[in-house]
Amino acid sequence: MINSKKIIVVLPAYNASKTLIDTYNEIPYDIVDDVILVDDNSTDETITIANQIGIKHIIKHESNLGYGGNQKSCYNKAFELGADIVIMLHPDYQYTPKLIHSMSYLIANDVYPVVIGSRILGKGALKGGMPLYKYFANRYLTFFQNILMNQKLSEYHTGYRAYSRKVLTSIDYNKNSNDFIFDNQFLAQIFYKGFEIAEITCPTKYFDNASSINFPRSLKYGVGVIKISFQYFFSKNKIYQSELFK
Questions:
Q1: At residue 227, does pLDDT exceed 70?
Q2: What Pfam families does the record tag this protein with (predicted)?
Q3: 216 Cβ partners below 8 Å, 6+ apart?
Q4: Looking at residues 138-150, what average pLDDT do you find?
Q5: Are 181 and 71 in contact (CB under 8 A)?
């Protein structure tokens, strides 16, 4: 805990058997109270390894719900366990758990209600091996969203995030997509509710065992991002009210 606030790390897992141990061992247990792993019907030994290393709270989906569906189970379980701060960390070891301290303290000390680890601040993305097409797509989509949403984030597409309980209880994330666009919908909803988001520089690693969506799914995601940006703009300016922001 920090300032009597319970901190829970959630691991949305899919075929993470080769990287789970490294991720788990770097979690700072001096402040983290619980770890939740949600396995989205993996075809490898993720569940076996999770049990072997002693993860107490393990949920297995009987069918693959998708990245967003996985996160919904993560946050719902975190609420059940009384979390005050929830850190969403990918168990593919692409993001370092060593930033959990910094992210948690910003929330626990009421500086910001949401903190994301940005790969774009500094040179973390390209240095870590992000493909060039993804880097430039990230920059373009972020610029587009900042214009339509009147914000100044360095990126909207990181998978490393920390949320206060107040934020998670203020937004009906269960109505969001079960696909990768879930993350982007969530950030748009956070801004729509008037919450501020802090960013910290985050190194990242792209390697064979790190999860990554292919080009067709990246294209689908990009179209979804543009759609959400317009939905936000129209709703904020009372032109048309999207269900996403009700």
A1: yes
A2: Glycos_transf_2
A3: none
A4: 96
A5: no
- Paired with 95 in beta bridges are 204
pLDDT tens digits, one per residue of 88-135: 999 999 999 999 999 999 999 999 999 999 999 887 788 888 888 889
Residue type, 5: K
Looking at the domain assignment, is residue 1 inside a domain? no
pTM of the shown model: 0.94
Whether 44 maps to a domain, the answer reads yes
Provide the 10 A C-beta neighbour count for residue 139: 14
Cα separation, 181 vs 217, in Å, equals: 10
Asked whether residue 33 is assigned to any structural domain, the reply reads yes
Instruction: Supply the pLDDT for residue 214.
Output: 74
The amino acid at 231: Q
- Contact status, residue 24 vs residue 1, Cβ threshold 8 Å: no
Average pLDDT, stretch 184-195? 98
DSSP string, 63-95: S---HHHHHHHHHHHHHHTT-SEEEE--TTSSB
